[in-house]
């Protein structure tokens, strides 16, 4: 058995993790932050990507959103887990959590929004969902289950877009800018749009792989010539 | 694409256990407790929710 460091799949994972971490750093530094540096931890199965990760710390650090030296209004938390899909052929996002919070401590009652994604999760909740924090007094009245004494607004898993069309880091950056929580750099729209196009292209390729008949049907309608492969 | 991104490779089970335990200790919780809260879909705090994402990713759960 070759040493793990020579495993071609792990080498591909290392490269993808580095590139993805760099893309996250670039996106934030070119839009709403200064000097953000994502890093990665790679195990024998997957890569964890976040800020301030090391061999002894796997917890990502909150990122102050500001381009100057003033006090940031909001902090961003980002942690992604990257690895192979169940066929161990394609690299994919396995888990992701991205949160905006008004405190650097990222306290529960100062949460603005959290976007979570967990591929093939063993819970009944949607793979892609968001949580928001707020006060409501009537949530217990609409709880028909028996397993809980009470629930809060942030306990609800609000579904968003599914595996392929879930919100991205670009969407959160745009949200913080449009809702005037951060002053952006001048060219932020171009940077966000470029990242979004990259994301869409990756997701479209995955969709076509999973539903090639529908993809071929649509291409034929558009005038392409598509034939099924022999195998 | 060339990057300057740091990549830390965890090669042994001992290194992985130490990393997981460090996250759990920082959050003052246990793996069993986080598994339970994840299954119910309700975390006591955002800190615990983030810690679950970290340790479950490391352990490939």
What does the model show?
- The complex is a heterodimer of chains A (231) and B (61).
- Chain A has one domain.
- Helices cover 28% and strands 21% of the residues of chain A.
- Chain A contains four helices and eight strands, in the order αββββββββααα.
- Chain A has helices at residues 8-29, 169-178, 188-210, 212-221, and strands at 38-42, 46-51, 63-64, 75-84, 91-101, 111-118, 128-132, 158-159.
- In chain A, strands 1, 2, 3, 4, 5, 6, 7 and 8 form an eight-stranded antiparallel sheet that branches.
- The longest helix of chain A has 23 residues, at 188-210.
- Chain B has 61 residues and is mainly α.
- Chain B has three helices and one strand, in the order βααα.
- Chain B has helices at residues 13-27, 31-40, 46-58, and one strand at residues 7-9.
- Chain B starts with 6 loop residues before the first strand and ends with a helix.
Task: Give the SSE layout.
The complex is a heterodimer of chains A (about 230) and B (about 60).
Chain A: H1 8-29, E1 38-42, E2 46-51, E3 63-64, E4 75-84, E5 91-101, E6 111-118, E7 128-132, E8 158-159, H2 169-178, H3 188-210, H4 212-221
Antiparallel strand pairs in A: 1-2, 2-4, 3-4, 4-5, 5-6, 6-7, 7-8
Helix pairs in contact in A: 2-3, 3-4
Chain B: E1 7-9, H1 13-27, H2 31-40, H3 46-58
Helix pairs in contact in B: 1-3, 2-3
